[in-house]
Specification:
Layout (H helix, E strand, L loop, with lengths): L1 H5 L3 E5 L16 E6 L9 E6 L4 E4 L9 E7 L8 E7 L6 H15 L3 E3 L1
Parallel strand pairs: 6-7
Antiparallel strand pairs: 1-3, 2-3, 4-5, 5-6
InterPro entries: Endo/exonu/phosph_ase_sf
């Protein structure tokens, strides 16, 4: 509700602890929800609400997605403006070097040809 009143275009959330049982209660009027739930254990997960006046499309970078808690969405630019890629990432404190490197590769892939906002 506060987000809508403030007119935010994008709202990123980490450590949200949602799973499939929350589908009915996490929607927000005026926003499209993109989410990636943590697999195999409780907690974690990331989400991005995109204002309905923006056109967003979830990106699958095709690399190391199972190792990281990250979500990437391309926001279509307005006439004459380029698209932007928004990333929402959560790094658990006990995450190892392999997952860190996977996240760095994702950031590199996401930012290779577009502006990166995170």
């Amino acid at each position: 509700m506060c987000a809508r009143l403030q007119g935010y275009d994008l709202i990123g959330i980490t450590e949200r602890w949602w799973d499939g049982s929350y589908d009915w209660s996490v929607g927000m009027e005026g926003y499209r929800l993109f989410r990636k739930d943590r697999q195999g254990r409780q907690g974690g997960g990331v989400a991005l609400y995109v204002n309905d006046h923006l056109e967003g499309m979830e990106l699958h970078l095709g690399m190391d997605e199972e190792l990281t808690e990250s979500l990437w969405v391309r926001i279509k630019g307005r006439a004459g403006a380029g698209d932007i890629i928004v990333g929402v990432c959560y790094r658990p404190p006990d995450q190892g070097d392999q997952a860190d490197e996977a996240l760095y590769r994702q950031i590199g892939a996401a930012s290779s040809s577009q502006a990166l906002v995170g």
